[in-house]
Amino acid sequence: MAPVQTLDNKFVENGFQKQMKSPAKPATYSDVVENYDGQYRFAPIQEAQVSRAMIKRYFETMYDRVISDVVIVGAGSAGLTCAYHLAFTRPDLKITIIEANVAPGGGAWLGGQLMTPMVIRKPANRFLEEIGVPYEDEGSYVVVKHAALFTSTLLSRVLAMPNVVMMNATAVEDLIIHEDNAGQQRVAGVVTNWTLVALNHDTQSCMDPNTITCPVVVSATGHDGPMGAFSAKRLVSAGLLKELGNMRGLDMNRSEPAIVNNTREVAPGLIMAGMELSEHDGKNRMGPTFGGMIGSGIKAAHEALRVLDS
Ligand code: 48N
């Protein structure tokens, strides 16, 4: 096969690529166009290589994470902030995020009523500085130009952490609940299935789930969406919570401190954060301001460490 030019002028011979040292500068589109000889090509590949590259990695990870140190249910602003703080604080922990949507991020892609700017009340702006999200300072609050700038930056930081695995398009459809010798029930992991399966159980005969066991589950499944407040509702049906508190009317000044200060272990082995906690406790909602999610996520990380170390 004739050698072809690649991005940084290196030659590929017989389909085997010479070990390429990283280019002095990142290839830019103009480099590609300048090198373009009218026949821009890629190094050759076999379809099976692509499939095996995905299958090997995904199922090795899945096999490894059936026993995790912490499972975080829900990759919204609270769950992702918890994952970031936990992974940063304890790089030794195997942290597994289970997110039902194909696209993680929950409700934090937009600021409110489909508008894009995101409001975060001080002092939660310190977290923006920590992860590198620019904002406009408006005195008692800050405004991020687009909510997706916050969420995509946080997601990239979390997914770059070597001890974090995220399984999106995967739903938690039950909790693993063990009973100790004293008869106390304790959450000991999650029951999972592909989300498309979880949403279609009534179309087929039983499509059994999978399990992930862990000593601590952080549930941050939000207050709306196809599976909102999942664990809070499951605690009621499992007899571990008498009744759902149900989220109350909007009050920014009451809701945000309440959600941060009440983030806690709501049942042995289960920590609840974010708007799911509003549903569990019957606390107010805050509407389009996200500092409480950040604070709750960080508090949930501290709670998870407390439970792990107890
Ligand atoms: O963004 P959410 O919904 O939840 P939080 O608590 O991280 O953030 C809430 C926040 O976006 C607000 O609602 C704002 C502050 N508004 C407040 C108000 O007053 O209206 O993320 C939850 C994530 C979503 O991505 C869901 O897909 C996911 O959890 N999820 C699940 N993932 C796996 N298994 C499940 N059973 C499940 N249920 C929900």
Automatic annotation (TrEMBL):
<dbReference type="InterPro" id="IPR002922">
    <property type="entry name" value="Thi4_fam"/>
</dbReference>
<dbReference type="GO" id="GO:0160205">
    <property type="term" value="F:cysteine-dependent adenosine diphosphate thiazole synthase activity"/>
</dbReference>
<feature type="binding site">
    <location>
        <position position="107"/>
    </location>
    <ligand>
        <name>substrate</name>
    </ligand>
</feature>
<keyword id="KW-0784">Thiamine biosynthesis</keyword>
<keyword id="KW-0408">Iron</keyword>
<feature type="binding site">
    <location>
        <position position="172"/>
    </location>
    <ligand>
        <name>substrate</name>
    </ligand>
</feature>
<feature type="binding site">
    <location>
        <position position="78"/>
    </location>
    <ligand>
        <name>substrate</name>
    </ligand>
</feature>
<comment type="function">
    <text>Involved in biosynthesis of the thiamine precursor thiazole. Catalyzes the conversion of NAD and glycine to adenosine diphosphate 5-(2-hydroxyethyl)-4-methylthiazole-2-carboxylic acid (ADT), an adenylated thiazole intermediate. The reaction includes an iron-dependent sulfide transfer from a conserved cysteine residue of the protein to a thiazole intermediate. The enzyme can only undergo a single turnover, which suggests it is a suicide enzyme. May have additional roles in adaptation to various stress conditions and in DNA damage tolerance.</text>
</comment>
<feature type="binding site">
    <location>
        <begin position="99"/>
        <end position="100"/>
    </location>
    <ligand>
        <name>substrate</name>
    </ligand>
</feature>
<dbReference type="InterPro" id="IPR027495">
    <property type="entry name" value="Sti35"/>
</dbReference>
<comment type="similarity">
    <text>Belongs to the THI4 family.</text>
</comment>
<dbReference type="InterPro" id="IPR036188">
    <property type="entry name" value="FAD/NAD-bd_sf"/>
</dbReference>
<dbReference type="GO" id="GO:0009228">
    <property type="term" value="P:thiamine biosynthetic process"/>
</dbReference>
<comment type="subunit">
    <text>Homooctamer.</text>
</comment>
<keyword id="KW-0539">Nucleus</keyword>
<keyword id="KW-0808">Transferase</keyword>
<protein>
    <recommendedName>
        <fullName>Thiamine thiazole synthase</fullName>
        <ecNumber>2.4.2.60</ecNumber>
    </recommendedName>
</protein>
<keyword id="KW-0963">Cytoplasm</keyword>
<feature type="modified residue" description="2,3-didehydroalanine (Cys)">
    <location>
        <position position="206"/>
    </location>
</feature>
<feature type="binding site">
    <location>
        <position position="275"/>
    </location>
    <ligand>
        <name>substrate</name>
    </ligand>
</feature>
<dbReference type="GO" id="GO:0005829">
    <property type="term" value="C:cytosol"/>
</dbReference>
<dbReference type="GO" id="GO:0005634">
    <property type="term" value="C:nucleus"/>
</dbReference>
<feature type="binding site">
    <location>
        <position position="208"/>
    </location>
    <ligand>
        <name>substrate</name>
    </ligand>
</feature>
<keyword id="KW-0479">Metal-binding</keyword>
<dbReference type="GO" id="GO:0005506">
    <property type="term" value="F:iron ion binding"/>
</dbReference>
<feature type="binding site">
    <location>
        <position position="223"/>
    </location>
    <ligand>
        <name>substrate</name>
    </ligand>
</feature>
<dbReference type="Pfam" id="PF01946">
    <property type="entry name" value="Thi4"/>
</dbReference>
<feature type="binding site">
    <location>
        <begin position="285"/>
        <end position="287"/>
    </location>
    <ligand>
        <name>substrate</name>
    </ligand>
</feature>
<keyword id="KW-0520">NAD</keyword>
<dbReference type="GO" id="GO:0052837">
    <property type="term" value="P:thiazole biosynthetic process"/>
</dbReference>
